[in-house]
Design goal:
single chain, globular, four-stranded mixed β-sheet, alpha+beta, 30% helix, 8 helices, five-stranded mixed β-barrel
Length: 245
């Protein structure tokens, strides 16, 4: 009978009190109608990196969802943001535990059976759960369930500011900048260097005549790549063998 709130770790949210108010409003909707509730973010640009949610036109705080839209082309995204009933999909969901279990049973029976297998054995250690997890189908909750239960989903528009900082380019907007536009977390000395993203846990980073790079120093590695190619981190990670991971 628990009510679950599903949140992404890589979201920037402000202010916290408005976020809490919206979540509590969603919890009340779940209690009252056993709905699945999602929080929609009003688009501020024709972003092609986010999914979109189409709702029925309404003046209510809680809107009916029509459909979930895949990440669009620029032209389609520009059309979406001209309409007041489209929202960015932030991946925030609120539902009852029983509701999602029932959905898994109906729409993802393989998921349900695998999860039931280890929960029936009261396995809770992440290490012991890992082999079961690897058996699960690789599919997002949007495709697997949300698109199939659209009529049961409600959307509450966010009253807080939101940003997905799951990549370095997005994080740049939330780091302090020097007079040359370098976004900095840690210690930086620069000469004729501008518009870089510099993150250092311990060491001083010194730059000369360097522009538009991402430089990240961590305990076990140093990352350097062009700012306009931050998605290549995924390909780079795949090249690491188990010696380095």
């Amino acid at each position: 009978n628990a009510i679950c709130v599903i949140l992404s770790a890589d979201a920037w949210i402000d202010p916290v009190d408005k976020f809490q108010d919206i979540i509590l409003k969603a919890v009340e909707e779940v209690k009252a109608n056993d709905s699945v509730v999602t929080i929609g973010i009003k688009p501020t640009s024709a972003h092609t990196g986010y999914g979109y949610i189409e709702t029925k036109q309404s003046n209510q705080d809680c809107m009916d969802v029509i459909s979930f839209k895949e990440k669009p082309t620029k032209q389609i995204a520009q059309n979406y943001i001209k309409q007041s009933n489209y929202f960015w999909n932030a991946g925030i969901f609120i539902w009852s535990a029983q509701k999602i279990v029932n959905c898994l049973k109906e729409y993802l029976p393989n998921h349900y059976n695998i999860i039931k297998e280890f929960t029936d054995k009261n396995i809770i250690s992440p290490t012991e759960i890992a082999p079961y997890y690897e058996k699960l189908d690789s599919i997002s909750i949007d495709y697997a369930i949300m698109e199939k239960i659209g009529s049961e989903i409600k959307l509450i528009p966010a009253t807080f500011k939101w940003d997905d900082i799951g990549n370095w380019a997005s994080l740049e907007n939330h780091l302090p900048k020097d007079d040359s536009g370098n976004a900095i977390k840690g210690k930086l000395v620069s000469y004729k260097s501008s518009n870089n993203i510099v993150v250092s846990n311990k060491k001083l980073i010194a730059l000369a005549n360097i522009d538009n790079l991402i430089i990240v120093e961590s305990d076990d590695a140093i990352l350097v790549l062009p700012k306009n190619d931050d998605q290549s981190i995924k390909a780079l990670y795949e090249k690491l063998d188990d010696t380095y991971k």
